[in-house]
Amino acid sequence: MDLFIILVICLSCLILFSLWNRSYAKGKLPPGPTPLPIIGNILQLNTKNISKSISMLAKDYGPVLTVYFGMKPTVVLHGYKAIKEALIDQGEVFSGRGSFPVSEKTTQGFGVIFSNGERWKQIRRFSLMALRNMGMGKKTIEDRIQEEALCLVEALKKTNASPCDPTFLLGCVPCNVISSIIFQNRFDYRDQKFLTLMKYFNENFETVSSPWIQLYNAFPFLRVLPGSHNLIFKNFALQKSFILEKVKEHQESLDINNPRDFIDYFLIRMEKEKHSKESEFTMDNLVATIWDMFTAGTETTSTTMRYGLLLLLKHPEISAKVWEEIDHVVGKNRSVCMQDRSRMPYTDAVVHEIQRYIDLIPTSLPHAVTQDIRFREYLIPKGTTILTDLTSVLYDDKEFPNPEKFDPGHFLDKSGNFKKSDYFMAFSAGKRVCAGEGLARMELFLILTTILQNFTLKPLVDPKDIDTTPVHKGFGTIPPFYELCFIPV
């Protein structure tokens, strides 16, 4: 009985504090729906499609609003103007990383994606420098992608034009490109460790996009319950063991005067700063950064390609136009290269439209303000989580007429030339823009064009019967399962 009374008192105090805290903040934070004690606005949010819920709320409360995920207030930015004003015009203040509870048990604030403050600045700056040293944005990285794309072509030929699920093979290319940067070697597509590593990335991306993880992030105390979050934790532990094994191999063969890959560059920096207690170049940051690079550089690109092929199956007339442009500009006797892109406006538009249409990361990762800031007429306290509704930009009907329609014309002018758009925020924007954007753009263009140069895509059903509706639209947008035939041309 005594324990019950104590629990009731604690719960009452928690509710009263929650109500007082919201009342105190009400005059500062943007408007929003009235939250309920403890659960906040979770009943007004569709965990299967948070972005759609935000769009509905923005109609009532405007482009800058406050939503409570549990007891935590989150300022939501809806539409191009609000997002640009925050992430670009006041990028430094909005450059913090907001709370993402499912990651806290894995990366624990280390690495480049989920870190903050000086750690984030140092690790990101170093990572970009190391990637440039290894050819990022240069011909050397393009050569690696082209070589890997040709390996993919050979693997697809071995399917003998039979129905196949493209998930694994499409994931091999970006995973091997990242592997060559981090480990200085690629994996054979039949390598069991490689197969397992790919499986973990695929499972984690699908799981983190599920409704359960949206609830988990709002109510982290759910960690005590059984649920799919435990699969993420289990997979991360196994991935970490794989990474540590590779790091150990590098430590044993390290030549500080001849760095071979990203791990070597990091280990050399660790050695230089080993006597500094403030150094951010530690084993924890190395492991987390490698995991970040694999996670951000593998599954996002492979999922975009998988969804892209599904859209091309649904729209064979678009595939045919891309093939005609490839045949006219490149032909069949050489590999597609990045120099070709400027002469292939329709293909370039298709790649951009795939990214716009699928809306891969609808609300991006949460940001946070690094100091108290007056934003428009509101005062947002330091540390407040900021959610950017990228869907509202990619699906802006003034910039992209009929945004619900898959139409490469969204990126073409009246003369058929490629048309850039500031609204193309598929990689987010500002200080936290995806560090691998250049690599991802290169991979998407080269891999998709190489596939269409060598194969005709044959669906197993009539194109009009193909359903492109995502199975999840949480953190990420997950395409439905499908099979197709790759017919050599």
Automatic annotation (TrEMBL):
Cofactor(s) demanded: heme
Annotated InterPro entries: Cyt_P450, Cyt_P450_CS, Cyt_P450_E_grp-I, Cyt_P450_E_grp-I_CYP2D-like, Cyt_P450_sf, Cytochrome_P450_fam2
Family: Belongs to the cytochrome P450 family.
Residues that bind heme: 434
GO biological process per UniProt: monocarboxylic acid metabolic process; terpenoid metabolic process; xenobiotic metabolic process
Signal peptide: 1-25
Key words, A-Z: Endoplasmic reticulum, Heme, Iron, Membrane, Metal-binding, Microsome, Monooxygenase, Oxidoreductase, Signal
Membrane topology annotation: Peripheral membrane protein
GO cellular component terms listed in the entry, alphabetical order: endoplasmic reticulum membrane
Gene Ontology molecular-function annotations: heme binding; iron ion binding; oxidoreductase activity, acting on paired donors, with incorporation or reduction of molecular oxygen, reduced flavin or flavoprotein as one donor, and incorporation of one atom of oxygen
Superkingdom classification of source: Eukaryota
Record organism: Mandrillus leucophaeus
Protein name from the UniProt record: Cytochrome P450
Subcellular location per the Swiss-Prot or TrEMBL entry: Endoplasmic reticulum membrane; Microsome membrane
The enzyme's E.C. designation: 1.14.14.-
Reported function: Cytochromes P450 are a group of heme-thiolate monooxygenases. In liver microsomes, this enzyme is involved in an NADPH-dependent electron transport pathway. It oxidizes a variety of structurally unrelated compounds, including steroids, fatty acids, and xenobiotics.
Gene3D superfamilies: Cytochrome P450
